[in-house]
Each structure stands twice: as C-alpha cells, then as structure tokens.
Design brief:
Layout: H1 11-24, E1 48-49, H2 51-58, H3 62-71, E2 83-85, E3 88-92, H4 93-116
Antiparallel strand pairs: 1-3, 2-3
Helix pairs in contact: 1-2
Length: about 120
C-alpha cells in the first residue's frame, strides 16, 4: 500500500504535547481533534476529546482509562462513558472536566478521613 505522506502519531507523544499545551495555555495544532465533523455539534465553545485529550486533561494513562471503562471503574467515581466512532473513543470535554472535579473532591474527602483516624 503506498504511503499517503502522513505518519501515525504515537498516543503518548500526542498526549504529552496536549498536556503541555494545556499547562501553558496555548493552542495545540491538532487539526479536527477537538471537534470532529462526524460527531454531534456541541453548543458554544464545547469540544470533543479523544483518548489523548482525555489523558492530557486528567493525567491518567490511557491504559488505566481503558481498564476503568472495561470494569466500570473507579468504583467511587466511574469514568464517563465515551461515544464510539470508527473504533475510537470520544468524550465531551465538559464530562471529563466534571469527572476530574468530582475526583479531586473525593480525593480531598479521603485525605481528610485518613487524617481523622486515630
């Protein structure tokens, strides 16, 4: 099969580039990654995240996310169920942000409970 002139992007490389862009507050040239035309349009500034985007936003490794999806985890705060398109997973960014907020709150509650133990 002839090459189309493009090469595959490694997920970890793409995730680290997205994470760096998020930390620095700059736009990452990602093509249609954050708003695929095949996915339903979202209102306002909302956009879709693929696995690399979800990894960049949460700091959770892709293998952990896929494990959680397979097992319905984590038990205390299940990871959002993605939409599937062409064998890829996509989440609304607002769902990932809400999950991350709940996860941070739950972690704070667990830490407070541990500190109260005798």
């Amino acid at each position: 099969m002839p090459s189309s002139g493009t090469s595959p992007i490694e997920l970890t490389t793409h995730a680290s580039a997205l994470a760096q862009a998020i930390r620095s507050g700059r736009a990452e040239p990602a093509g249609r990654l954050f708003g695929l035309p095949e996915l339903p349009e979202l209102p306002g500034d909302a956009y879709w995240l693929d696995m690399a985007g979800a990894t960049a936003f949460t700091g959770i490794p892709p293998r952990t996310i896929t494990s959680w999806l397979a097992r319905g985890g984590p038990v205390r705060n299940p990871f959002p169920v993605p939409q599937r398109l062409l064998y890829r997973l996509y989440w609304r960014a607002t769902e990932i942000t809400s999950w991350r907020t709940r996860e941070k709150a739950a972690a704070g509650e667990r830490a407070a409970a541990r500190s109260r133990r005798p």
